[in-house]
Automatic annotation (TrEMBL):
<dbReference type="InterPro" id="IPR023214">
    <property type="entry name" value="HAD_sf"/>
</dbReference>
<dbReference type="Pfam" id="PF13246">
    <property type="entry name" value="Cation_ATPase"/>
</dbReference>
<feature type="transmembrane region" description="Helical">
    <location>
        <begin position="125"/>
        <end position="142"/>
    </location>
</feature>
<feature type="binding site">
    <location>
        <position position="762"/>
    </location>
    <ligand>
        <name>ATP</name>
    </ligand>
</feature>
<feature type="binding site">
    <location>
        <position position="475"/>
    </location>
    <ligand>
        <name>Mg(2+)</name>
    </ligand>
</feature>
<dbReference type="InterPro" id="IPR032630">
    <property type="entry name" value="P_typ_ATPase_c"/>
</dbReference>
<feature type="transmembrane region" description="Helical">
    <location>
        <begin position="404"/>
        <end position="425"/>
    </location>
</feature>
<dbReference type="GO" id="GO:0000287">
    <property type="term" value="F:magnesium ion binding"/>
</dbReference>
<feature type="region of interest" description="Disordered">
    <location>
        <begin position="1"/>
        <end position="36"/>
    </location>
</feature>
<feature type="transmembrane region" description="Helical">
    <location>
        <begin position="1056"/>
        <end position="1080"/>
    </location>
</feature>
<dbReference type="GO" id="GO:0005524">
    <property type="term" value="F:ATP binding"/>
</dbReference>
<feature type="binding site">
    <location>
        <position position="885"/>
    </location>
    <ligand>
        <name>ATP</name>
    </ligand>
</feature>
<feature type="binding site">
    <location>
        <position position="682"/>
    </location>
    <ligand>
        <name>ATP</name>
    </ligand>
</feature>
<protein>
    <recommendedName>
        <fullName>Phospholipid-transporting ATPase</fullName>
        <ecNumber>7.6.2.1</ecNumber>
    </recommendedName>
</protein>
<keyword id="KW-0479">Metal-binding</keyword>
<feature type="binding site">
    <location>
        <position position="583"/>
    </location>
    <ligand>
        <name>ATP</name>
    </ligand>
</feature>
<dbReference type="Pfam" id="PF16212">
    <property type="entry name" value="PhoLip_ATPase_C"/>
</dbReference>
Length: 1176
């Protein structure tokens, strides 16, 4: 989405509304070795930002027109002493003596040597399951409850904690290393009259720093002077917000030589306290007892790079962790997988099941004790009395009630793995493996920019397979955000003829400057009729009107012309750098028609007009802001006249155009604008008027009063701009094409076939959005459009009621409700969101196949996302590319940032990032499906493999007088979840594919399995538990019956149960594997071999119980009979049930799996396959 400061074509509200400030500029300037001009005149812009914490407890009103206007910007009020800091220029000691400011050392790490262990453990024990296993381990240390060895009981938890701690420690070590490199970089600091090298970490507030071209700025500084005599500097903010276009900052005229020691004494800066607002700054500087105002254009921030300026000098105002970039270094909001949230519900059920098992054992133990209370003294395996000495003593017997209580606690210890602790670490490893394959997927790599898919959050991988709603920005997300000038309406005449590539018979228009040939870097097709009229000169009315139009395009902007070398030393290319792709397109268009901007300084611009170099003095400029939605420039023309040129969105421009003049022209222009919007073009309107000397002086005095105001400065400057931009004569309008990205129509069609609803939330005007909707196949001619454009609560209510009637009729008449398309504008949303009308909007929107929201502000985008999240359990995905998409990206269940033309704000706030919208199809339909299917199966399998082991122990307890003695060796119990069965689960969770990529892409409706939760749901959970119960009974009772009349000892039959259960659960897993690879083979069969080896090793250690048991056991034929019988009897019911379901009630996934194995059964005629249609 084009951000507010870079778009004029549409009404672009933002979380960071901006206000324009301007300054009459002096002329002059010099050339640098890389730039045509040494600097760009830029208004002294004060940009107001209402910073809103999305996670704050204060209610955010998504319907607010201002997007958070209740949070008053610092730029709107006077700086109070308690809200400010005082900086003494070139006197860091005095600056820091009253209130010591933060040093310039930064730390992005979480731990240090002392805090790593306690803090890391504290964070890990936020998982309730870890606390549970810690309690179990502590209970096992008590002599009365010691079921396992004390070391063995703490091993599983220790291993999980260790693995996580090593991972966290490694990540933090990398942060420490990065911080160390950053803090030890060097800068030139003024010390004792000379500039000396100083480490960044030692820089203090108040010090004066000099930095050169291509240097990274070490802290937040107020510019004092630059190599340009007018104090202008270019900076690149790519490290701050990702935007590569150059921006202009400048020093105040009063400070251009203040860095000289004798002139810096007594100079102070009073500025606001550190805050996160990277677009705003408010301060005043006292120089020679004169108050000088400071704004955002006077400050350069840490991480920015100086470009096209030889050197600059600044004074430090914020350092280290108090710099704006570090205050914004909080990352994206933490999100939690919905599958994991559902899993916790099943874990609670398992916890109740565990309590039930322990209660059964303890109650039955109490009954047994009461029944045999007279025999306890002499019973060999439960002697209560010790007769070995002269005096008869009691063994550790605590009475009937306490014995029951201890039995309960001991049961918890024995059955502890019913809650699968290894599942958490397995999920993390599986997500890491899934992320690796998503990143390495060449089908999601943009070859033109060599941009690969980025996985910035590992905890929502599986949510990609369950998305029901996609909320997409338009500009830069569905479109390329590479603007190209197409049509022009000049004084009521539409020039939309066929374009030619060249200007006349030359290779495009070029200008000659000082013996150099200058050509625009980007070629633009030109209209032959316009070119012919331009050649006639501006003596005629038509020629003058065309002259004014292209002069407006070339001058009314903040573009920086940059020279680039070519292979021909006599030829240079002009690269027009600017914050707005719209502005770049207009300036390139003006250059193609012979109005080439070749120089811009702080006081003038030079435009080559059809070979004639003309200089225009820039007397003032009002930048674009989201309230006015237009910008203006005051030019002193070569004929000594003063004119103001204004351009902006049509909704605001027609309010300031004098409609009493040229009514026919205005009507024609409006018609042309509608035509341009209808074919998907972005539109701008240009106006102008002449200024008399009296009007100019009045503006100048108003500006000076506003710019020197310490309170309400931004509001006053906005008022000055509004007073200037009135009674304009219309000049013309432009149509700029923002082409669709490659593959967008096909991607949207695939998503629709996958039963995913795509909503587009854009700031563009309605006609443009609708046109893009048709070209992207979001809208079709078969859809009934419901349009809501209202400006009051009552009218919105009536429109919603009427629309609901239409939608209900469509449903009852049998018409597919997905053929409805809702189109609503941001003004209507102001009155609907956060009101009682929200419920009606939700009801209406849920009946529509498509929702298109036009002219919406960033917080309204977040409000639309929350409209769905608060009322359904459906998963949402938001995708965008600009700063004004961050709010919806953070609110959605899954947020995706497009790494496009608008910087990296969206990427930095996202869970995943990619270069093109079309990559959403393989991400969701392929990787999303795989991730969900694998993770769902892995969770159920972990429940199963742990429960079957616990139930075998449970059956054994029932046959051993409830004494909680275990036949299975304690080390086998510990290693069961760590070595015997864990690795196959992880490998299958990463590598198994139930269907191929081709099938999933060719049949998008297969994605519905995730939306319908086919891989993980309550039914599957209870079926799994029933199967577990059966398998545990088979595994226990077959050996019991086989050896019931033998003298086999507990350790031997315990080894049989261990091997039987491990064989069983691994073969159970093998039955469900679809795609066999050598790694899966190695993990499953290798785990079985590893189990056999471990059991042998345990049994050859003399100090452990069961010495040599496995060798005696394996020599008996009954052992092998039991193993085979257990496996066959346990898996037959599962095999039969799977076969019956797949034969008589197959799912889409199973049908397609059969097609992949045996070919298209439709072609063979043996069966008819019909894919289940998605639910509407």
């Amino acid at each position: 989405m084009t951000s507010d400061h870079s778009s004029y074509a549409a009404e672009m509200s933002s979380d960071e509304p901006k206000s324009a400030d301007l300054q009459p500029a002096s002329s002059g300037g010099s050339f640098s070795h890389r730039s045509i001009s040494s600097n760009t005149w830029r208004a002294n812009s004060i940009k107001e930002v209402g910073v809103i914490e999305l996670g704050s407890k204060g209610g955010v009103r998504y319907g607010s027109r201002k997007g958070g206007s209740s949070s008053m910007s610092m730029s709107r009020r006077e700086i109070r002493d308690e809200d400010s800091r005082l900086v003494y220029v070139n006197d860091p000691v005095k600056s820091n003596e009253s209130l010591e400011f933060a040093g310039n050392s930064v730390s992005t790490s979480k731990y240090n040597v002392l805090t790593f262990l306690p803090r890391n453990l504290f964070e890990q024990f936020h998982r309730v399951a870890y606390v549970y296993f810690l309690i179990i381990a502590i209970l096992n240390q008590l002599p009365q409850l010691a079921v396992f060895g004390r070391f063995a009981s703490i091993l599983p938890l220790s291993m999980v904690l260790l693995v996580t701690a090593v991972k966290d420690g490694y990540e933090d070590w990398r942060r420490h290393r990065s911080d160390r490199i950053e803090n030890n970089r060097l800068s030139s600091v003024l010390v004792n009259n000379t500039f000396e090298q100083k480490k960044w970490k030692d820089i203090q507030v108040g010090e004066i720093i000099r930095f050169s071209a291509n240097d990274t700025i070490p802290c937040d500084m107020v510019l004092l002077s630059t190599s340009d005599p007018t104090g202008v500097a270019y900076i690149q903010t790519i490290n701050l917000d990702g935007e590569s276009n150059l921006k202009t900052r400048y020093a105040k005229q009063e400070t251009l030589r203040i860095h000289e020691v004798e002139k810096s004494s007594g100079v102070t800066i009073k500025c606001e306290k550190p805050n996160r607002n990277i677009y705003g700054f408010l301060g005043t500087m006292e120089v020679d007892h004169k108050q000088v105002s400071l704004g955002p254009s006077n400050i350069v921030l840490r991480g920015c790079v100086l470009k096209n300026t030889s050197w600059a000098v600044g004074v430090v105002v914020y350092t280290g962790m108090e710099t704006k970039v570090m205050l914004n270094n909080s990352g994206a909001q933490s999100k939690r997988s919905h599958l994991e949230a559902r899993m916790n519900r099943e874990i609670i059920i398992l916890s109740f099941f565990l309590v039930a098992l322990c209660s059964i054992v303890s109650i039955l133990a109490g009954i047994w004790l009461r029944r045999h209370r007279d025999e306890l003294d002499i019973m060999p395996f439960y002697r209560r009395k010790d007769y070995s000495g002269e005096d008869v003593d009691n063994y550790k017997y605590y009475g009937w009630g306490m014995e029951i209580f201890f039995t309960f606690l001991m049961s918890v210890i024995v059955f502890q793995i019913m809650i699968p602790i290894a599942l958490y670490i397995s999920m993390e490893l599986v997500r890491l493996g899934q992320a690796y394959f998503m990143i390495r997927d060449d089908n999601m790599c943009d070859e033109s920019t060599n941009s690969r898919f980025q996985c910035r959050a590992l905890n929502v991988n599986e949510d990609l397979g369950q998305i029901k709603y996609v909320f997409s920005d338009k500009t830069g997300t569905l479109t390329e955000n590479k603007m190209e000038f197409q049509f022009a309406s000049i004084f009521g005449v539409d020039y939309n003829g066929e374009k030619t590539e060249f200007y006349g018979e030359q290779g495009g228009y070029y200008a000659e400057v000082d013996g150099l040939i200058l050509k625009p870097k980007m070629k633009v097709g030109v209209d032959g009729e316009l070119v012919r009229l331009l050649k006639t000169g501006n003596d005629t009315n038509i020629g003058k009107q065309i002259y004014d139009f292209f002069l407006a395009l070339a001058s009314c902007n903040t573009i920086v012309p940059i020279l680039e070398d070519t292979s021909n030393t006599a030829e240079k290319l002009i690269d027009y750098q600017g914050e707005s792709p719209d502005e770049q397109a207009l300036v390139y268009a003006a250059a193609a028609y012979g109005f080439m901007l070749i120089e811009r300084t702080s006081g003038h611009i030079v435009i080559d007009v059809l070979g004639d170099r003309q200089r225009f003095n820039v007397l003032g400029m009002h930048e674009f802001d989201s309230d006015r939605k237009r910008m203006s420039v005051i030019l002193g023309c070569p004929d000594s006249t003063v004119k103001v040129f204004v351009k902006g969105a049509d909704t605001t421009m027609f309010n300031v155009i004098d409609k009493s003049k040229n009514k026919d022209v205005i009507t024609a222009t409006e018609s042309h604008l509608h035509a341009y919007s209808s074919v998907g073009l972005r539109t701008l309107v240009m106006g102008m008027r002449g200024l008399t000397s009296q009007e100019f002086e009045q503006w100048r005095s108003s500006y000076e009063a506003a710019t020197n105001a310490l309170m309400g400065r931004a509001r006053l400057l906005r008022k000055v701009a509004i007073n200037l931009e009135t009674n304009l004569s219309i000049v013309g309008a432009s149509g700029i094409e923002d082409k669709l990205q490659q593959g967008v129509p096909e991607a949207i069609e695939s998503l629709r076939m996958a039963n995913i609803k795509v909503w587009v939330l854009t700031g563009d005007k309605q006609e443009t959005a609708i046109s893009i909707g048709y070209s992207s196949k979001l809208l079709t001619s078969k859809m009934t459009q419901i349009i809501i454009n209202n400006n009051s609560t009552d009218s919105c209510k009536r429109s919603l009621e009427d629309a609901l009637i239409v939608s209900r009729k469509a449903t009852t008449s049998g018409e597919n409700p997905r053929l409805l398309a809702l189109i609503i504008d941001g003004t209507s949303l102001v009155y609907i969101l956060d009101s009682e009308l929200e419920e009606q909007l939700f009801e209406l929107a849920s009946k529509c196949a498509v929702v298109l929201c036009c002219r919406v502000a960033p917080l309204q985008k977040a409000g639309i996302v929350m409209l769905i999240k608060n009322r359904t359990n459906d998963l949402t995905l938001a995708i965008g590319d600009g700063a004004n998409d961050v709010s919806m990206i953070q609110k959605a269940d899954v947020g995706i940032g497009i790494s496009g033309q608008e910087g990296r704000q969206a990427v930095m706030a996202s869970d995943f990032a990619m270069a093109q919208f079309r990559f959403l199809v393989p991400l969701l339909l392929v990787h999303g499906h795989w991730n969900y299917q694998r993770m769902g199966y892995m969770i159920l399998y972990n429940f199963y493999r742990n429960a079957v082991f616990v139930l075998v122990l449970f059956w054994y307890v029932l046959y051993t007088a409830f004494t909680l003695s275990t036949a299975i060796n304690e080390w086998s119990s510990v290693l069961y979840s760590v070595i015997y069965t864990s690795i196959p689960t992880i490998v299958v969770g990463i590598l198994d594919k139930d269907l191929s990529r081709t099938s999933l892409l060719n049949h998008p409706q297969l994605y519905g399995s995730g939306q319908k939760q086919e891989s993980y749901n309550g039914t599957l959970f209870w079926l799994t538990m029933a199967d577990t119960l059966w398998q545990s009974m088979v595994a226990f009772f077959i050996p019991l019956l086989a050896y019931r009349k033998t003298d086999i000892d507990g350790s031997s039959i315990g080894d049989l149960w261990t091997l039987a259960v491990v064989f069983l659960v691994n073969l159970h897993l093998a039955m469900d594997v679809t795609t066999w690879t050598w790694i899966i083979h190695a993990s499953i069969w290798g785990s079985i071999v590893a189990t056999i080896i471990c059991v042998i090793i345990i049994d050859v250690i003399p100090i452990l119980p069961g010495y040599w048991a496995i060798f005696h056991l394996a020599g008996d034929g009954s052992f092998w009979f039991c193993l085979i019988a257990i496996i066959v009897a346990s898996l037959i019911p599962r095999f039969v049930l799977k076969t019956v379901i797949q034969r008589y009630r197959p799912s889409d996934i199973q049908i397609m799996g059969e097609v992949e194995k045996f070919g298209d059964l439709n072609e063979s005629g043996s069966a008819e396959i019909e894919m289940n249609q998605p639910q509407r």
